[in-house]
Amino acid sequence: MRPEPGQVLHFSEDPSITRFVPHLAATARQPGEYVRAVDARRCPDYWFPRQCPRVMAWTGPGSSAADRDRIVGPGCGERVHAVEYGWLERMRTVELYAYRFDAAPFRPFEADGGGGGSAVVATEPVVPLGPAERVGDLFALHEEAGIALRVLPRLWPFCDEVTRSSLQWSGIRLRNALPSQGG
Question: InterPro entries in the record, alphabetically (predicted)?
Fold first, then answer.
């Protein structure tokens, strides 16, 4: 599930939205009201239930082979996504939808620490190009894209290793992750 050229996507568990109006997200770290969407490169970050905590890591121009092998894993491609065991059933059963938008009203928006960008945003109301599309099997999407999907008891040790590595990364909904073993 990726946008066509000249499009961006917004993922949601609500298939009935007909107009998206800029708003201040409850989790925003920057001021401003936006409609958020993603380009083709960042769509895989949202192949999850909305509230699912996840850490994603991928190779970039400055990534070392040692970090790729240590974090992504030998023979696992260039990208890994990690979730906690407690989210597996929700990943199997979630009804996730994608809304397609014309990319013209959107501009890049950098919000994460991993250097990979996080979203594109519009500051005006936008209307989808058509009805919401069911995303389908989230595990199959990962497999077809060649993205390793790792399931862990807790995300924080993995997140700590990823953020210390030379890989690019993003963490989403980490406030919903189980606490670290030590605290």
Answer: DUF6886
d(CA 176, CA 183) in angstroms, rounded, equals 15
C-alpha of 53 from chain center: 10
Averaged over successive runs of 10 residues, the pLDDT of the chain (183 residues) comes to 93 97 82 91 95 97 95 93 98 97 91 57 96 97 96 97 96 94 64
Q: Which residues contact 61 (CB under 8 A, 6 or more apart)?
A: none
What type of residue sits at position 38? Answer: V
Rounded to whole angstroms, how far apart are CA atoms 136 and 8?
18
Please tell me the pTM assigned to this model: 0.89
- Which residues touch 158 (CB under 8 Å, ≥6 apart)? 55, 82, 150, 152
Cα 105 from Cα 132, distance rounded (Å) = 19
> What's the pLDDT at 118?
60
Collapsed DSSP state (helix, strand, coil) of residue 176 = helix
For the CA atoms of 72, 75, 76, 77, what is the dihedral angle to 10 degrees?
90
Domain boundaries, given as residue ranges, for the chain? 7-24+33-172
CA dist., res. 112 & res. 31, Å (int): 15
> 84-99: buried (b, 16+ CB within 10 Å) or exposed (e) per residue?
beebeeebeebebbbb
